[in-house]
Records
---
Amino acid sequence: MSSLAQVSVVIPAAGKGVRMSAEISKQYLPLAGKPLLARTLSRVLALSPRQVVLVVAPGDEHWRAVEGVEHCLVVRGGACRAASVLNGLAALQAATNDWVLVHDGARPCVRGADIRRLFQLVATTEVGGLLGVPVTDTVKEVAAGLITASLDRTRLWLAQTPQIFRFGLLQAALQDALRQQMLITDEASAIEMMGFQPLMVEGHRDNIKVTHAEDLALAEYYLAQQAMTERGAV
């Protein structure tokens, strides 16, 4: 499948990016000559999804100058990620069993091939799934600066986005998380809280979330490497 014609997309980009120590939100910082968010949108829009909803922070007007937003419906975010994604879902024209893909606005290096493969693998499931990569470093559990346990890394994965779920299930899961005042950091967590097991699909380590200042240089490097690989494949 070369496109996501059956899939609606929600892109949460309402975070303030306080860890970047920048004057503007991280999604608008320049990345290889364009705003970071423009890079992310170009990756998603290239797959021709059914519809795209961009979720921005209340009071944010920087999005108006971002290339690609003319192909998106823009809505305002909420007080937390779950509320923001719910606002995005509410703007979709989707039925209960329709697929919805949620992708972080701050992940500009996601590969189109990985998104297509993820959808192909989850399309036959009732729940959905997400991209991720296995943990390779040794992971320690720490309290008050002291190690309390070493975790079995053979069973641990780093969750990424996109994450794809059925519209009705995802909406119900996020609403339930808000009612219970559970702080969730990704959509899969809300699905898991309802007793479901999302499919984990291995992606690539270059699908980083730009969080810290040094991540911008790394993302630019990854984009350049991907472009070189694509040129070599032609």
---
Amino acid sequence: MSIDTGVPPLHFFLLGHAKEHIRAVIEHYSIRDVVIFTSVELEEENLPFIQSLRDEGVVISEVINLEPFGQDALERMMARILDAYHIHSRSERTEFVVALTGGTNLMVVAMALVALMKGLPAHYVLNNGRNEVVEIDLFERLAACVDAKEVEAQIRAGGEER
């Protein structure tokens, strides 16, 4: 994975019921700046954890509530993740890293597809008692094979066609 340590990357995290994976990755990479994607249903449950990260000096740039259930959930979540990517890209941020641990399966799929579209490095935390971080560079390598603009147009049009 090619993380430029000169510019602190913005990490996109998925937050469900489990929290250990986020702490493991924060410690592994000394992360200081994150966007958290969680579900509407877990917003209240996750607020104390999010505040504890802030108390530890992690900048929570944004908390985005996703709706991971329903017919168009995948398209809607991808659109929300892409919106966050575009907003934070305009703030001169050039380095993004995405987490593929946490949240629902569809939240992970949405995050992985955005990583593929944008060629972003990713990581996954193994649930093996040691919280080992596995770096995934496949999306960076495959991004050139994807017409990201066309995929994004299809995602945004998907909900309108149903």
---
Amino acid sequence: MFSVLVRAGILITNPNIRNMASSTNSKPVRLVLFDVFDTLCTPKLPIHEQYHEEAIRGGLSPESITPQSVRNAFRPAFKKVDAQYPLYGKHSTPSLTPEEWWTRIIYETLREAGASKGELDGKIDAIGPALMSRFESDFGYRNFPETIACLKELKELEVKTSVVSNADPRILKTLDSLQILPLLACSPTLSWDVEAAKPSATIYEKACERCEEKVGEGIIMVGDELKADFHGAASAGIEARLIRRPGEWSDGAVRDAKEELGGVNVVSSLEDIVKEVKQRNATP
């Protein structure tokens, strides 16, 4: 599904890619914004394996679904529910809570994966909450090795930090469980709250407003998706950094073998962001 070149990290060494160290920006960094998934943290196990594990634990027969059938079903189910209930069903009639919205995702995924309606109808009330609880905790996700150290160092450098995510408020529980939330200087900006999603410039502008900063040089956005994180932030007038860890990506990561990374500022670790901040904020 994803390019072998990306998997091997070869694209990161393309001579046409503008790496962070070559940046000519000189103004001090005031704020660093982060994407969440595959930037600060990543699933401990592939999403489909975790769905399968909780579904079997919740009572579905092992013969009805497999990890691969769940993997094949997840994206179509997600697209179906998202099309029917945009913005997590916030303005649907009747409106849905994030928990109700995700329960529909889980239900449609497992049905498409092979579970019978009769069996699933009797189990979803146990499987849904179990899966949501898992992904709201460090049982479902893990930080990258340098995540906490990066946030702590930026805090010591008196640089503001926050998160920009296409997510609902449940993500706050995940960030808290991973010890990320207490280290952020400003509250996260979520698509649920501002009703705009990456790559729209609006969500980035709202994030800067929330952090009491003006869009422009000295504001950095770090994320792993070329369109949503890099180009989206750049369109808002924010300095963008595309993070691509060699060999580090989850099943849900957005990658394209035809990506054009010429002129893109690419970093391979959050440590590179700290180094840039130290360099640009150093007292003459």
